[in-house]
Amino acid sequence: MTTPPLSLSEAPEGAAPSRFRSMPLEVLVKLLVSFGLLAAIASSVDLGRVAGLLVTLAPLAGLAAVASLAGIALVSALRWWLVMETIGTPQPLRRVLALMFIGSFFTQMLPTSVGGDAVRIWQLSRHGVAMDRAFIGVMLERISGLLALVLMVVGGVLWLGEAMDPPILRSLLLASLPGLLAVLLLLSCFDRLPPRLQDLPLLGQGLRLLADMAADTRRLLLTPGLSAILLLLSAAAQLGSVLAFYFLAQGLGLDLDVTAALAVVPAIILITFLPVSFAGWGVREGASMVMLGAVGLGADQAVALSVLFGLASILAGLPGCLLWLRRGPKPAVAAP
Predict the structure, then answer these.
(1) Which residues contact 260 (CB under 8 A, 6 or more apart)?
(2) Residue pair 81/96 in contact by the 8 Å Cβ criterion
């Protein structure tokens, strides 16, 4: 059974879907969580030392970190372009690149770490792509990136060994790989469910969408050459975050080599994906204290690095803001 294309044709011209227009309660809750976490972290570190570290950053190191983070959008755009080609919804590489930068900007500005994905789906649908195909393309691009990230996290945790503390966090991070593989297996089998389930009043539409997504998921995972390329691109994208932390540490004169950064930064990024705070603020700082502490950095140093990483991420997303302003409002296009 084929999912009926979802359309924005019923939305007001030039308006975003209601999900994007009004999220006051969600924004308020996530702001409170971020402020609460940051307040708790501030009470456990020497803010004077953190501020002293921040102002000592070498400008060239900061620029290198911003460039590394901007490079993530370039690599991720190529990965998304390949995914869209594979699922039969090809897009011009220039468009995909522009939308990826726009999504990266909104990821930093919206309450959740995946807010940019929602903007990408919406914008792609305004170029005539059916909403369900846009959703599937963005989700599969995200999933391919997440698989590489989780593999790197597990490798880093195994490399750290007993230095990883607390043990419960080590177990949870190691469990992320079998958990993700189980989700991928389930996602690949949704089109094998009895068709009558797709007629359920509340779940039917979602099940139809997942059933359509199943074949595309198998195509990406079971095509050896393609899956290898996607994994390599995803690993390269994650390397951008690792290098950003490394450059910032060098700019502050901290003892963090590339190997140690490679072991701990992917776990920081994975934990930051938890959708409980505003754009990851607070969660990332807490994760940095734990993970960077495992490789010998103090809490003050870890917090300073995390804050600089967050600021560098905002700067790296500014090209997306310029592209967004340059594109200007466009009338919504109903998907064929």
Answers:
(1) 295, 296
(2) yes
